[in-house]
Amino acid sequence: MLNLVLFGPPGAGKGTQSEYIIGDYKLVHLSTGNILRAEVEAGTELGKYAKQIMDEGKLVPDEVVIQMISNKIDANPQAQGFIFDGFPRTTPQAQALDELLSNKSTAITCMVSLDVPEDELVSRLVKRGETSGRADDNEGTVRKRFKEYTEKTLPVATYYQAQNKLFSVDGVGSLDEIYGRIKSVLSRYV
Ligand code: AMP
């Protein structure tokens, strides 16, 4: 299996690049942000609970997102691999993911981190907010999401680096250029 963690701050292009990758590598795309937004849209109890946290730019509790990912892994027994997008976002999430995959006799293959300077991210997200309809794509909430990212999510890169699985790619350029950089990392494995 090819199990990829696509990592990077809000607005780095994880969702867009995931779409490219799933087309070529036939992986199952698991985005905790997309799953949570679907719950909000459907008006479920989980959605109602999560909406408030998401609108504040904070992280949903680990046990909630870990359970969501566990369910999705179980629901895709035939998968040739997964792209984890926006997950894991804390070290306990990364540890839980290692355990979930090890129970399925597999593991994370690598983490690709998209590096984009913060100024560029803010302008991308505020621009995205004009069309995305996402309540959290406004400058105030974006700043809070960056704070969460720096404090809680950045250590996840160190976690994978310690396993020699971290690859950083430049996340600035055309979509094709960035995808080319990701493919050159993946070519080590497939
Ligand atoms: P995203 O679409 O990945 O930017 O996620 C949007 C929001 O959903 C985040 O700001 C968090 O509130 C929540 N969220 C998504 N993934 C996670 C996660 N792995 N852990 C905690 N909260 C998450």
Could you walk me through the main structural features you see in this protein, from its secondary elements to its overall organization?
There is one protein chain. With 190 residues, this protein is of the alpha/beta class. The protein has a single domain, classed as Rossmann fold. Helix content is 58%, strand content 14%. It has a 5-stranded parallel sheet, with helices on both faces. The longest helix has 23 residues, at 139-161. The chain starts with a strand and ends with a helix. The mean pLDDT is 97. Residues 10, 32-33, 36, 53-54, 57-60, 65, 86-87, 89, 93, 136, 145 line the site of adenosine monophosphate.
Notable features of this structure?
190 residues; alpha/beta; Rossmann fold; five-stranded parallel beta sheet; 8 helices; 14% strand; binds adenosine monophosphate
What's a quick, concise take on this entry?
The chain is of the alpha/beta class. The chain has helices spanning 14-25, 32-42, 45-55, 62-74, 91-103, 118-132, 139-161, 175-186, and strands spanning 2-7, 28-31, 81-85, 110-115, 166-170. Adenosine monophosphate is lined by residues 10, 32-33, 36, 53-54, 57-60, 65, 86-87, 89, 93, 136, 145.
Radius of gyration: 16 Å
Bound molecules: adenosine monophosphate
Largest sheet: 5 strands, parallel
Taken from the alpha-carbon principal axes, the silhouette is globular
Task: Please identify, by name, the CATH architecture.
Answer: 3-Layer(aba) Sandwich
The low-confidence parts are none
Overall residue-averaged pLDDT value: 97
Number of strands: 5
Number of helices, counting only DSSP H or I runs of 4 residues or more: 8
Strand content: 5-15%
CATH superfamily: P-loop containing nucleotide triphosphate hydrolases
Which structural class matches the secondary elements? Answer: alpha/beta
- The top-level CATH class is Alpha Beta
Oligomer state equals single chain
Strand order, largest beta sheet: 2-3-1-4-5
| Number of separate domains | 1
